[in-house]
């Protein structure tokens, strides 16, 4: 539409957009987490081509660092070009073939996303049930396998919607492999923050997101597959429905040949490399210990405010703390108060827990004592404005 006074189309006038000045938040929600200054500096370094010999060397380094962080020797360990959901869809969309039976959990929001992706891949989805806020029981998993004989079993190691850490992982994978099924693990909120061992726990495929415990901007997302899983991918009778996420094609770019498939997000790969270097410098087991130690202080402080955790201590998830919203308190008002008065981000519940919990992250560079102290003081003030006395 032309401007009534000048007769000039609005599209012919350059938009008046000022300099980028996002607020300086303290990120204590379910992700992203605070990014380490070294990672931000890595993103400001010069671009090279995605097949430049120097970038190929960087690709090799990222793969080695990912193997260390995943605790695996898997050759097929790469960063998928996209967010964590792209790595998730790559794992599920390649391992689930049309007609396969996929067993997925119902105990959180991201089990539901697994189901949706498996259905879109042409799989027949069946479920193993557990209440939101509880882990899967191996007895129920065994029963579901006996009933449905699934080809693929997916589970969420660290359920971001409920604050629950799945115990008994080797027992679950053992059940699956006794039934000749493939295991896909969601490690989006656990990789680099809580104990997670791909090889020792006999996991066939695992995916994650970089913006949680790795404290890296989203854009290049970790994925690892065992030789057994990759053999299934390469022996498929039909192509995966996504060309972009077809691992048999991505293998040509991230494998030995380094042939063109797509233009990788070079700056994001730089960032992931530096984030993973920080993991290696700290030591993966020391990093797990730090997350637990700092999150224990958070949990203690939350209880001293008169609040309750959603998950019992037996399967509490240190990297994502789901805190029950007390009766009479408006969860959204508390979130808004923290953001407006303290530049501090936490998040509300998802799915069945919407309005019932706050989700407080303690991940990566955000998992520091000073952040926990700041959060607890700010939360106490926000609760006081609601008239809550713990």
Automatic annotation (TrEMBL):
Its EC number is 2.6.1.44, 2.6.1.45, 2.6.1.51. CDD domains: AGAT_like. InterPro entries: Aminotrans_V_dom (IPR000192), PyrdxlP-dep_Trfase (IPR015424), PyrdxlP-dep_Trfase_major (IPR015421), PyrdxlP-dep_Trfase_small (IPR015422), SP_NH2Trfase/AEP_transaminase (IPR024169). Signal peptide: none annotated. The keyword Transferase applies. One of its GO terms (molecular function) is L-serine-pyruvate transaminase activity. Residues 49-349 form the Aminotransferase class V domain. Keywords: Aminotransferase, Pyridoxal phosphate, Transferase. Pfam families: Aminotran_5 (PF00266). GO terms for biological process: glycine biosynthetic process, by transamination of glyoxylate. Gene3D superfamilies: Aspartate Aminotransferase, domain 1, Type I PLP-dependent aspartate aminotransferase-like (Major domain). Residues 1-31 are annotated as: Disordered. Its cofactor is pyridoxal 5'-phosphate. Belongs to the class-V pyridoxal-phosphate-dependent aminotransferase family. This is Alanine-glyoxylate transaminase/serine-glyoxylate transaminase/serine-pyruvate transaminase. It comes from Halorubrum alkaliphilum.
């Amino acid at each position: 539409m032309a401007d009534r006074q000048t007769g000039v189309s609005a599209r012919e006038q350059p938009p008046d957009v000022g300099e980028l000045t996002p607020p300086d938040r303290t990120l204590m929600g379910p992700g992203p987490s605070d990014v380490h200054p070294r990672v931000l500096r890595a993103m400001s370094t010069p671009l090279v081509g995605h097949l430049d010999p120097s970038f190929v060397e960087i690709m090799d380094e990222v793969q080695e660092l990912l193997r260390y962080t995943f605790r695996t020797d898997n050759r097929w360990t790469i960063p998928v070009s996209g967010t964590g959901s792209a790595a998730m869809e790559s794992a599920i969309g390649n391992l689930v073939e049309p007609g396969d039976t996929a067993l997925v959990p119902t105990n959180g929001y991201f089990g539901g996303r697994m189901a949706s992706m498996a259905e879109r891949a042409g799989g027949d989805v069946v479920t193993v049930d557990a209440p939101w806020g509880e882990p899967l029981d191996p007895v129920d998993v065994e029963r579901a396998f006996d009933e449905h004989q699934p080809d693929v079993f997916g589970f969420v190691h660290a359920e971001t919607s409920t604050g629950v850490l799945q115990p008994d992982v080797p027992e679950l994978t053992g059940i699956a492999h006794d039934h000749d099924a493939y295991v896909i693990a969601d490690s989006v909120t656990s990789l680099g923050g809580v104990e997670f061992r791909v090889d020792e726990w006999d996991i066939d495929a695992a995916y994650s997101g970089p913006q949680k415990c790795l404290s890296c901007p989203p854009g290049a997302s970790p994925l690892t597959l065992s030789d057994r899983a990759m053999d299934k991918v390469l022996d498929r009778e039909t192509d995966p429905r996504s060309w972009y996420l077809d691992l048999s094609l991505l293998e040509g770019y991230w494998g030995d040949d380094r042939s063109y498939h797509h233009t990788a997000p070079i700056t994001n790969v730089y960032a992931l490399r530096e984030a993973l270097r920080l993991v290696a410098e700290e030591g993966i087991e020391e990093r797990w210990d730090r997350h637990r130690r700092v999150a224990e202080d958070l949990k203690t402080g939350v209880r001293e405010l008169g609040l309750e955790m959603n998950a019992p201590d037996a399967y509490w998830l240190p990297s994502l703390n789901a805190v029950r919203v007390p009766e009479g308190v408006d969860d959204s008002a508390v979130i808004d108060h923290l953001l407006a008065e303290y530049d501090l981000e936490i998040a509300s519940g998802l799915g069945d827990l919407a309005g019932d919990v706050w989700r407080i992250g303690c991940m990566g560079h955000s998992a520091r004592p000073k952040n926990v102290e700041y959060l607890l003081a700010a939360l106490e003030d926000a609760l006081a404005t609601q008239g809550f006395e713990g």
